[in-house]
Structure formats: structure tokens, C-alpha cells
Amino acid sequence: MAIAISRRAREFIQRKGSVVTVRLAPRHGCCGGMASLAVADAVEPDDPAGYRHLEREGIRVYLAPELVDEGLSVDLGGWGIFRHLYVDGAPLKR
């Protein structure tokens, strides 16, 4: 399986439209360093052609090619209106 989605995350994604994008996002450090961190958003990407498209239990998953077969999982954190998706299982990419 290219990516796992927890039950809580799946329910959240379904309420948001049944689509999730998993990609790398740059994070900048305080002293000028940078790393890319895997993130998940409950939206379709601007350019779907640049992603691998998967179907998981009724959810359309757009997965960045560099994250395929990384053993990722998507879960839900936070509470109330501060709920958010997060990705676990992938090392930082420098």
C-alpha cells in the first residue's frame, strides 16, 4: 500500500469532500536552513498531473511522486475547529 489513512483522518477527509493531497512542503529554520516535510491537505492539488492518483476507501488521494512507497500514514490531530491532518512515517527530506 502506498499510503495508510487512519479511520479518524478518513472521516475528516470525507466531510471535506473525499480528497486529500500529500506532498512535501518547505520548512525554514531560524538560521537559514531548510527541510521539506510531508504534509496532507484535504484539497485537490493545483496541478493534479504532477501527482500519483490513488483511490483508498472512497477517498481520492494525490500523492507526490517522491513520497510513493515511503511507508506514510495520514492521521488527524488537534481538537474542535483546530483539527488538522498530519503525515507520519516519512523522514525529513533535505
Please give the largest β-sheet. Answer: 4 strands, mixed
CA distance, first residue to last residue: 25 Å
- How many DSSP-defined strands? 7
User: In what range is the share of β-strand residues?
Assistant: 35-45%
Helix and strand pattern:
EHEEEEEE
Explain how this protein is built:
This protein is mainly beta and 94 residues long. The protein is built from one helix and seven strands. The strands form two sheets. It has a four-stranded mixed sheet with strand order 3-2-5-4. It has a three-stranded mixed sheet with strand order 1-6-7. The model has no long low-confidence stretch (mean pLDDT 89).
Please outline the helices and strands.
Blueprint: E1 3-5, H1 7-15, E2 19-28, E3 34-41, E4 52-56, E5 59-63, E6 72-77, E7 84-88
Parallel strand pairs: 1-6, 2-5
Antiparallel strand pairs: 2-3, 4-5, 6-7
Task: Name the features.
94 residues; 3-stranded mixed beta sheet; 7 strands; 45% strand
Please summarize what this structure is.
This protein has 94 residues and is mainly beta. The protein contains one helix and seven strands; from the N terminus they run E-H-E-E-E-E-E-E.
